[in-house]
Target: Glutamine synthetase
Amino acid sequence: MTYKAEYIWIDGTEPSARLRSKTRILADGAGLPIWGFDGSSTNQAPGKASDCVLKPVFSCPDPIRGGDNVLVLCEVLLTDMTPHVTNTRAQLTSVAERYADQDSWFGIEQEYTFFKDGRPLGFPAGGFPAPQGFYYCGVGADEVFGREIVEAHLDACVEAGLAISGINAEVMPGQWEFQIGPAGPLAVSDHMWVARWLLYRIAEDFGVSATLDPKPVKGDWNGAGAHTNFSTQAMRSGYDPIITACEALGTKVDEHIAGYGAEIENRLTGMHETAPWSEFSYGVSDRGASVRIPWQVEVDKQGYIEDRRPNANCDPYVVTRLIVGTCCEALEKAGQV
Ligand code: ADP
Ligand code: MN
Ligand code: MN
Ligand code: MN
Model:
């Protein structure tokens, strides 16, 4: 007998990479071999030397095909087996290893928007729905659009064994969120990319497209973010490290903003529960700050922080690399590890 392996990888599309996948039939009991693809069709190689290599790095049961079939997330390599320049996972690996002793955890809140017929699901043809106010965590056919897709996606993520921790309807009609984590930087990012692939794949069966566009509707409508919750062992056991991490993020604003997703300036305007991208701030319970310290964390004097800046279209390998690099370095320097 044989099984089907869906090889998934991240392409070279600018400015936001996209997911690609193709299927390989493997003999029962056979492991997952490296494979190749045409990099000239994914903005990853010139036509004259088009071969790129797929190296399996994470696999899980395939909840779409069921049975013994699997999803296989891959890193992209050059034919000399070195990481391709678009391989942000390889860049994260070295930083994660450098600070592995601090035991970083991440929980990422992935917001996204369903589109059908060129407009968000729930938007009437040629117009706008009632203003925002009742859609967030809403219930009922006048407030909620696409729940059957969201439920199918949640079931698929659970069946695949991903570290999904919840879902909710968002502030704009057709806008939703799922959360992955808490998990280490590599695991949360691997699971996020597979969860994104499952979202696109399942919505496809409903004739709907899911988008990570950070500002899908201009004007007085919320954008879509990827709030990134972060802690280290020290932050989970004391408050001084929480403050050290917040202060450290304030010293590297430009570098972080540049890695938090394309068109971030259009989303972090200072309106719609955001802080302006150019002005760093942090505060307890403050959803208008760049970084929020949850109220319970201040009460407990330990826990985690929420970086509210990453865009929905961010690359979690880049976001977690930046946060681990900045915060763990500062905690180490402060002797708070
Ligand atoms: P919000 O109130 O901002 O909407 P959510 O409940 O959507 O928050 O998401 C919070 C995320 O933070 C979840 O994915 C959760 O697993 C994660 N989380 C909880 N505790 C920690 C921690 N100590 N370190 C990192 N992430 C955490
Ligand atoms: Mn949330
Ligand atoms: Mn949200
Ligand atoms: Mn949040």
Q: What stands out?
A: The pocket of manganese (II) ion (ligand 3) is lined by residues 109, 111, 170, 177 (CB under 6 Å). Residues 269 and 276 are 5 Å apart (CA to CA).
